[in-house]
Amino acid sequence: MFRREPAPPAPAAALAHLPEGYYLANFRTVLEDVETRYGDLLLAGERAILAQFRATSLGAQRLYVRLLTRKGPWFRRDDLRYAEIGEPGPVLDELMRAGFCEDAAALPDLLPLLTRGDLLQLLQELGSSGARALRREDLLARLLEAAPEEHLQGLLGRHLGPVKPRHGELWRRIFLLFFGNFEQDLATFVVADVGILRYENYPLDPGLRSFATRADVDYLLSLRELRERLETVAGEAELEALTGDALAMGSHPGVRQQRRFQGLLNELGRAWERARQLDRALACYRLSERSPARERRVRIAASRGDLAGACQLAMELAEAPRDVGEARFARGFLERQRRKLPELDAWLRARPRPEAPPEVRLHLPRHPSGSVERAALEAARAEGWQGFFAENHLWRALFGLAFWEQLFAPVPGAFQHRFQNAPLDLGGADFYPRRREAIEARLAELGACPDPAPALLAVAEQKWGLASAFLSWRHLDRQQLREALARIEPALLVELLRIMVQSPLAFDSGFPDLFLYRPESRQWQLWEVKGPGDSLRPEQEWWLQRFLELGCCARVAWVRYADAASEPR
Length: 569
What we know:
- By secondary structure, this protein is α/β, with parallel strands linked by helices.
- The protein folds into three domains: about 10-195, no CATH class; about 215-350, Alpha Horseshoe (Serine Threonine Protein Phosphatase 5, Tetratricopeptide repeat); about 360-560, no CATH class.
- Helices cover about 55% and strands about 5% of the residues.
- It contains 28 helices and eight strands.
- The strands form two sheets. A five-stranded mixed sheet has the order 4-8-7-6-5, sandwiched between helices.
- Strand 7, helix 28 (about 540-550) and strand 8 (about 555-560) form a beta-alpha-beta unit.
- Helix 14 (about 260-275) runs antiparallel to helix 15 (about 280-285) and helix 17 runs antiparallel to helix 18.
């Protein structure tokens, strides 16, 4: 629902300061919360597994959770030694008897566990010589040739003692119920507990349920499975089966409003287009309300010779676009058909295209870094400007700082667990209406302030490092933030924030690359930098127009390299 920057792994030194068995304590926290909040969505058999887990010994619980948090699914027994658990053999035997682990690994499951040393030892035992100089891939091939598969499977089973934790689907469901997404897991606790990532102290809603029924959870799990299948689909038969399963999900209540489902439909449509099965592609696109589904339908209609139908749909896109990309595509498509369908001329003349943003044309040497933005920045500095690479980081940061209290306000249903960088409804239609009074008061406060910079900088200092969907602290420079706030007029800032707050996730990208300013004055401007062969994306063009309307000097800097003969456009 909102962006999460991948949390870096916790260093061993930091983990050493955590209490013994911290990972099991975190696991129990998840189980207790889910049983309290969603106990009625768990089947009797699932509740029995949870009870059986609690009945195992402390060492068994710790080792089982260790297995769940490591990359597997198969492990070798000699790689499962932990100081706080001791000898793993008896604990593994307990987990096997309780049904939490299995050891019946097939040969393909065992091969990835073999080291190069294992391969050399096994080949020597099988009487194969002269293998020491071979690569691992060649050693594997020779091992597979050295003995029958059944014999190898038994030999590797005895050599490795393979083990795999069971009930993975249940834990996947449990973590989805707790976090509400597939991106977070027990590692989220660790990076927070060691201080790598800190979260705002917002009140939790103990009665909040992201899922009303078990069917809601099943739907998301099934959708995840379909996406994983799409990544490995081979041939039209598999794609046909996958599409049928996806379309069958359309009967789930509210499923057509699910962005995840619509995204899957778009990916299936593109897969069918690549297979040149346009009817199947259209069946997917017609169910999707997410861009670029309608654009693809226009293109397919035109490719089939139905120009009138394509233009009719394109006009619908232009009249009521769902995003800036649709609006730009529709206008461009209709203008290209102007000569073929003369009746389009009156429609287009009644809707004049906004003027193109001002341009700067630069003939520059290539920057040593290869970055066209750095080359343009050096050129601006030669003309007396200072500046920095701002793009989305600066403007999203200003939004996050300006509305910090509103984003983390105790709105009912906004916060389910302590690892959120934004409220759960951030991407929903109700985000602004539910906070309208507080947001409008904040905008009025900023607009009435002759200089909002000190207040926003104070928020930055107070909240520095806390997780926020809008602030990437490692990209935010305090001095650059001061320079920007010293020059952005309060009225312009308020209008910019007013645009973004209506739908924060729809308007938080596409900002110009460079923020330039004169060191001894309040003069500033924005550059969107484009190198040879590049073009403006719809959201970039849209934001350039908005900045121009707000009275800002915003330009497109077209860069041509000194060693290139062609123009960049």
